[in-house]
């Protein structure tokens, strides 16, 4: 894995081989805890769960969807907060309570008639390992379990819940050659 980074005020410069693979991605699949969140499981005194999602990640997901890249979530836990976040972001493919993520991923790819080679998967722990290894672009975060970092094709600089999804969104847009034009619409 390469962690080449030009300057914090510029988009990350990814290796050419990663950009080539990323250019073919049609579906980004995300884990939740440790990827879309920092991985903390917080409960109130009444037993309600609290999750903190990163706003930058959400904008990145919306930009991908505008570009025609589908986004899905596969998570091992069941959470109404995850369902709400998926609904708020317009993510149509949400699978919760899925311990075997590769089985869930294959089912989703069959449903979408999409080969695993055209999928990017962002995960951080052992239940994600088989999916990370099976897809065209397996990605992880720096706070992931060491074995996941060893088997992922690349690793974000941002930690899970702190902009990692946005970094991957920028990668996919950059690889398609549309990041600059997408950002230009906001200038």
From TrEMBL:
<dbReference type="InterPro" id="IPR023214">
    <property type="entry name" value="HAD_sf"/>
</dbReference>
<dbReference type="InterPro" id="IPR010023">
    <property type="entry name" value="KdsC_fam"/>
</dbReference>
<dbReference type="GO" id="GO:0046872">
    <property type="term" value="F:metal ion binding"/>
</dbReference>
<dbReference type="GO" id="GO:0008781">
    <property type="term" value="F:N-acylneuraminate cytidylyltransferase activity"/>
</dbReference>
<protein>
    <recommendedName>
        <fullName>3-deoxy-D-manno-octulosonate 8-phosphate phosphatase KdsC</fullName>
        <ecNumber>3.1.3.45</ecNumber>
    </recommendedName>
</protein>
<keyword id="KW-0378">Hydrolase</keyword>
<comment type="function">
    <text>Catalyzes the hydrolysis of 3-deoxy-D-manno-octulosonate 8-phosphate (KDO 8-P) to 3-deoxy-D-manno-octulosonate (KDO) and inorganic phosphate.</text>
</comment>
<comment type="subunit">
    <text>Homotetramer.</text>
</comment>
<dbReference type="Pfam" id="PF00702">
    <property type="entry name" value="Hydrolase"/>
</dbReference>
<keyword id="KW-0448">Lipopolysaccharide biosynthesis</keyword>
<feature type="binding site">
    <location>
        <position position="124"/>
    </location>
    <ligand>
        <name>Mg(2+)</name>
    </ligand>
</feature>
<dbReference type="GO" id="GO:0019143">
    <property type="term" value="F:3-deoxy-manno-octulosonate-8-phosphatase activity"/>
</dbReference>
<dbReference type="GO" id="GO:0009103">
    <property type="term" value="P:lipopolysaccharide biosynthetic process"/>
</dbReference>
<keyword id="KW-0460">Magnesium</keyword>
<dbReference type="InterPro" id="IPR050793">
    <property type="entry name" value="CMP-NeuNAc_synthase"/>
</dbReference>
<dbReference type="InterPro" id="IPR036412">
    <property type="entry name" value="HAD-like_sf"/>
</dbReference>
<keyword id="KW-0479">Metal-binding</keyword>
<comment type="similarity">
    <text>Belongs to the KdsC family.</text>
</comment>
<feature type="binding site">
    <location>
        <position position="31"/>
    </location>
    <ligand>
        <name>Mg(2+)</name>
    </ligand>
</feature>
<feature type="binding site">
    <location>
        <position position="33"/>
    </location>
    <ligand>
        <name>substrate</name>
    </ligand>
</feature>
């Amino acid at each position: 894995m390469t962690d080449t980074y030009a300057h914090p005020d510029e988009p990350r410069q990814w290796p050419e081989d990663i950009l080539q693979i990323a250019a073919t991605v049609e579906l980004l699949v995300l884990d939740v805890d440790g990827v879309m969140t920092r991985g903390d499981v917080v409960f109130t005194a009444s037993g309600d769960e609290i999750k903190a999602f990163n706003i930058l990640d959400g904008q990145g997901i919306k930009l991908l969807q505008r570009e025609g890249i589908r986004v899905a979530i596969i998570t091992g836990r069941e959470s109404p907060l995850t369902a709400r976040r998926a609904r708020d972001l317009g993510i149509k493919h949400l699978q919760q309570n899925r311990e075997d993520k590769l089985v869930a991923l294959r089912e989703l790819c069959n449903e979408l008639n999409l080969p695993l080679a055209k999928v990017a998967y962002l995960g951080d722990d052992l239940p994600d390992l088989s999916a990370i290894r099976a897809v065209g672009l397996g990605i992880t975060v720096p706070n992931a379990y060491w074995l996941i970092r060893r088997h992922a094709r690349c690793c974000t600089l941002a930690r899970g819940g702190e902009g990692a999804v946005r970094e991957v969104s920028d990668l996919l847009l950059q690889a398609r050659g549309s990041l600059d034009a997408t950002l230009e619409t906001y200038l």
